[in-house]
Amino acid sequence: MNRADFAKVMAYIVAATGKAIATETAEVYFDLLGELPAEALQFAAMRALLEACYPVLPPAGVLRKLALDAMNGADREPTADEAWELVRRAINAFGYMREQQALAALPEGPVRRAAECLGWQSMCESTVEEVTRAQYRKAYETLAHRRQRQRLLPAPMIAMLERIGEMPRLPELKGYDHSNACQGLVDEARKRRALPAPMQEVGLDAVPEDKEAESQAIRHLDQGYRDLDIRRSDTSPARGEAEARQAPAIIAMLERIGEMPR
Length: 262
Known about the structure:
Shape: flat
Order of helices and strands: HHHHHHHHHHHHHHH
Number of domains: 3
Largest sheet: none
Helix content: over 70%
Number of strands: 0
Number of helices: 15
């Protein structure tokens, strides 16, 4: 889609909502939606405006999802119940011994992958179909959701994700030696100063030169680890009352610290 076609769609949205779109906002939308066919984006804009309760600019993610849904209408993912029905028929048709033929008969993607994750022979041997069905549904929905999210990513973001995946990992820090853990994170950040430009662009070289600022950062991280350990070890009713009084931002920060590598 060229910029002229994109401008027509944006003008359509402005006319419908009565809301002006800033030049910077339009540039962001073009970055995220510019690779879509103009007709698909036009359809997405019309549908988003029809389904909206208020005259507001549809988010870029909503427009992209609606456009891709329209483009993939004939190739949509089956529902969890439809996917299980395909698997059930394959079990009846091929049985326990013909696993490869059965899997090949299933549609490529989440339908087949979920069956592989549960194990074909295990599903065939199951004597409680409802349990197997529930397990398959859960696996299928997880895989289908992951595939849907991947489909929503524009090509530039996919390339960016691949570059990020090739970046060096943080060191695995074990144990509860908070001082060493904090210092290890700082040391690793220092090493990354010399990494190539793509890593510097995402801010991985942003380590304070000021010693006092660096020490303060270490103290904050160390205190976060200690607070998290206290929360994990405290199972008293008072803990729930204390957490209820905490600001949501503080709780979120502690959870993020808990996911950091030890």
